[in-house]
Amino acid sequence: MVLATAQFLVVLSTSIVNVALPSIRAGLRLSPAGMSWVVNAYVLAFGALLLLGGRAADVLGRRRVFLAGLGVFTTAALVAGLAPSAPVLVAARAVQGFGAAALAPAALSLVVALYPTGRALAVWGAVSGAGGAAGVLLGGVLTSAFGWPSVFIAVVPVGVVVGVATLAAVPADTGSGAKGVDVPGALTVTAGLSALVWALSGGGPWLFGAAVVLLTAFVVVEHRTANPLVPLRLFTTGGVGAASVGMTVVGAVWVGLFFFLPLYQQQVLGFTPLAAGLTQLPLSLSNIAAAALAPRLAAGVGGRAGLAGALAVLATGLAWLGRARVDGTFTADVLGPSLLIGAGLGTAFVLLTAAAVDGVPAPDLGLAGGLTNATRQVGGAVGLAVLSAVAAARTGGATDPASLANGYRAAFLTAAALITILIPFSLYKGQSR
Q1: Residue 85 — left, alpha, or beta (φ > 0 → left; ψ -120 to 50 → alpha)?
Q2: I need a labelling partner for 59 at 20 to 30 A (CA). Which of 44, 185, 206, 362 fits?
Q3: CA dist 396 to 323, 402, 406, Å?
């Protein structure tokens, strides 16, 4: 319960701000690009540094890194809630992502080490998937009742309780004690991914060149260092490589969905923040139910076939949402796609998480957990930048409901196409047993 709650907070913090974005934009005078950075500052720092966090958990001790990450994560949430300006908010979100990068892989490696059966991973996958949908729901409730700062401050008391409970319930471990944490690798991959996302967000063509140079430097560092951040052998261990590709694409769609869907509901359909949040409940319930049933599905039809089916359901839901009308309603345009999307996401996250740690030796569990989460978050950051560019190209800078609806439909259809392309690759034999 303690470890799952921590993971729920980490995922929740990716999406809880989405319904509040129009209120944050008005309160801090954010530009449209600034709104995406409130999400991407967290997601990008989280994803880029997860590998370092996973390795630190293996070396320094999983509970120790878990508690340190939780402290940074919770403190940064408080600063974000009290932020007086947009730069302070974006910086606090980046620091919160740094804390999450230590917290999440340490928690996953503790789960796998303490509970070797698949049931614990089913719970983990359920809270991971539900955290995104629940974040939108809670974001709407909190924004309507207490204003946008509450979406950050609400995390603080829960983080404190989780920290105290961890000291009481989670056994301490010493870690491997190995020396040599790959800081140069962490710095080059973080800078390279930041340049890439910035370039995709319209920051200038020179940033693409900087991203290529920095990411190439990262590969060189990984080849030459004695203790690489990402040992290349890991990609051929079990289902890590194939699961990482899948998580990248699904993560791109996941973050983009929970960014654009609340905006469509508020800016096109005219929903209040509370209504936009409450109408995410069917998606959340569908997600939780599908995650709970995913192990049975895998046992019945196999992991690869189960994943392919989940992706097909997800793509269908996204394509349906891509037909949403400017004068649409929740019942006709949102409810049906939400149920399909929730079912597809919930199942896919569980099966991809299980595949990623399948066959991984115990000393590398933290690194494998970090890589799994990293690919999802990095995919989310890059995916949001790409889908935002697609939406912006379709709207042409117009802000009337009809133009915005065209942009959001284009984003949803692009997401559906990405998932459709992924389906054949999910049948690759290295994906899972």
Answers
A1: beta
A2: 44
A3: 19, 12, 10
Are 241 and 431 in contact by the 8 Å Cβ rule? The answer is no
Is 0.85 surpassed by the pTM of this model?
Answer: no
319, amino acid identity: A
Summarize the confidence of residues 290-314 as an average pLDDT. Answer: 90
Q: Which of 266, 276, 252, 287 is nearest to 389 (CA)?
A: 252
Model confidence at 230: pLDDT above 50:
yes
Residues 71 and 8 in one domain: yes
Contact 385, 117 (CB under 8 A): no
Cα separation of 112 and 238, whole Å? 15
Across 359-380, b (16+ Cβ under 10 Å) vs e yields ebeeebbbbbbbbbbbbbbbbb
Which DSSP letter does residue 290 get?
A: H
Structure tokens at 78: 């408080």
Q: Beta-carbon neighbour count of residue 33 at 10 Å?
A: 15
Could you give the residue ranges of the DSSP H alpha helices within 201-302?
A: 206-224, 240-263, 273-278, 281-301
Range of the domain at 292: 2-171+227-426
**Tens-place pLDDT, residues 388-426:** 889 988 988 788 999 999 999 999 999 999 999 999 887
Residues 76 and 120 in one domain: yes
Two tokens, residue 115:
């509970």
Note whether residue 195 is domain-resident: yes
The dihedral region occupied by 202, where left means phi > 0, alpha psi between -120 and 50, and beta the remainder, is left
Encoded amino acid at 118, one letter: G
- Which two structure tokens, joined as six digits, stand for 254? 């996941």
- Alpha-helical (H) ranges within 225-272 are 240-263
Query: Please, what sign has the CA dihedral across residues 180, 183, 189, 190?
Result: positive
Q: How many distinct structural domains can be found in the chain?
A: 2
Per-residue pLDDT tens over the stretch 359-369? 777 777 766 76
The rounded distance, in Å, linking the Cα atoms of 236 and 94 is: 31
Query: Please, which residues have CB within 8 angstroms of residue 342's CB and are 6 or more apart in sequence?
Result: 133, 282, 283, 284, 285, 286, 287, 290
Query: Considering the domain boundaries, does residue 302 fall inside one?
Result: yes
Whether residue 260 is found in the same domain as residue 199 = no
**From its phi and psi, is residue 432 left (phi > 0), alpha (psi between -120 and 50) or beta?**
beta
